[in-house]
Amino acid sequence: MEFIDLKSQYQASRELINGRIQAVLDHGQYIMGPEVGELEERLAEYTDARHCITVASGTEALLIALMALGVGRGDEVITTPFTFIATAEAIVLLGATPVFVDIDPYTCNIDPALVLEKITPRTRAIIPVSLYGQPADMDELNAVAERHGIAVIEDAAQSFGASYRGRQSCNLSVIGCTSFFPSKPLGCYGDGGALFTSDDELAKAMREIRVHGQSKRYVHTRVGVGGRMDTLQCAIVLAKLEGFDWELQQRQRAAATYDALLAGNAAGVRPVGRREDRTSVYAQYTVVLEGRAELQAVLQAHGIPTAVHYPVPIHKQPAYAQLAPEARCPVSDALAGKVMSLPMGPYLSDREIRTVCATLLQAASAPLAMPV
Ligand SMILES: *Cc1c(COP(=O)(O)O)cnc(C)c1O
User: What structural domains and CATH numbers belong to the chain?
Assistant: First the structure.
């Protein structure tokens, strides 16, 4: 069993993907070729955001978003410690200070009720993460941000395709950032990412920052980065977009099968909570449980791969702890030791899911009896 089965996905879309790659090889415009603009148009349409700007990765998207907002030394940016390191990395790289706010124990997303007390005159932005593919509490966060004149950047690296109160993830705040890392719900075959906004000024700034701050050839209006997504990767995402809605349905099917098999179990295995007013794209299907290390070993012994997203919250990471010495995030600290992601993806069969759940529940009900 694969944790994320990219091979089956390629086999299912082989012709389309090969055709798109061949077209790029034939025209030879490897940088900013026609597929770049085509993808940006398609993704803007998909999310209903006015602008989409493709970039080199999800990390680069976060960095460029903060640069476009003018975030720098002396500024504070509120975010969650329960995320991939890139969320905080972008803040720190610009010389700003990450201010960590704890998560809601039900969804594992940043708790909007705790944000207000962390806002200071130096706060410039809030970066919620739509973790595991489920949008954060964006309306509550937007409302707090608006009252204080600060920006909300959605880290939607895991949630492209999810919806929230009828709107699409990536278009839920002033800027949305996503990633096309191969294992994300919409992935390419290398690194890639995108920025979304409906603000014309910010869009212009982000487009320029992506290409070394260039407004015209060799005129550098601002300091930028080498942040383009290459044509081949855009072509691959265009091919994968064709089957994306079907894949999202399959992800829902797989999650519903997991939910049904885990419902009311006596082994204390609880899927991470989801809210009624939004959908998840299940970048991960994650459960909360006790005795994780032993259970992972048992599953591994049965050929079932698992992963931990994420074992150490960022305010406890060696390079970040001294940047946020006051951070108190007890929910994140506790859940970091209890979350475990199970195999997930559109090509995972109900039969495989039954095997995962049976093995997991048996091991979790009798942890001491199982050989490790
Ligand atoms: C994957 C991920 C990123 C970074 O995306 P890359 O394309 O790998 O740079 C940022 N934030 C979160 C929450 C992610 O899951």
Answer: 6-101+111-241 (3.40.640.10), 244-369 (3.90.1150.10)
